[in-house]
Design a protein that fits this description.
single chain, Cyclin A, domain 1, 2 domains, 8 helices, 2 strands, 4% strand
Length: 179
């Protein structure tokens, strides 16, 4: 875990976080990718900051499995059309836990933090553009897809941090088109 990520974790929970993170990092490195590892680290740190942290009780391997499962569920990891792709039963076997136990812990993680499928906070970058929840904003009292609004409204939504980039300008160094 990066030093900045670890600094936000309460001191008493840090050894637990380091243990869980070591498991998720190794698993993601071997079977998924760095972005899954990064999202798993962020999720672990967020659980560690809960008062009291649920991470201090229970098997670290099961917590790690539940965390990866939760991130995978948000990003449809078990869907064969996704890359990377991993079936739930395969993931559980590779992590050395029972599928039912992993799924239960993953649901607990999601419920504890209010995470839903396609949750923009936990969506992989390659899925952001496909995730409709990322693009919904309130405009004049109505919830609309910001991609349907004129570009100047999209730029303002980006400036306010409501969307990750201005559609159509994602490759620009400055998504707002400033020089």
């Amino acid at each position: 875990m990066a030093k900045s990520e670890l600094e936000s974790v309460p001191v008493l929970v840090r050894p637990v976080v380091e243990e869980i993170t070591a498991i998720t990092n190794e698993f993601c490195s071997e079977h998924l990718d760095e972005e899954y590892a990064q999202l798993s680290r962020r999720l672990t740190a967020k659980l560690a900051r809960k008062r009291p942290s649920p991470l201090v009780r229970g098997d670290r391997r099961i917590w790690a499995a539940g965390i990866v499962y939760a991130i995978g569920r948000v990003n449809f990891l078990s869907d064969p059309s996704q890359r990377p792709h991993l079936r739930t039963d395969e993931m559980a076997g590779l992590l050395g836990v029972k599928p039912h136990t992993m799924a239960n812990k993953g649901r607990l993680v999601m419920d504890t933090l209010g995470i839903s499928v396609m949750d923009p906070e936990w969506t992989r970058q390659d899925m952001i553009e496909k995730n409709p929840l990322v693009w919904l904003v309130e405009f004049n009292g109505l919830v609309v897809d910001v991609r349907m609004l004129p570009e100047e409204f999209q730029v303002e939504a980006w400036r306010r941090g409501l969307i990750p980039f201005v559609p159509g300008r994602a490759g620009d160094e400055d998504p707002a088109g400033r020089s």
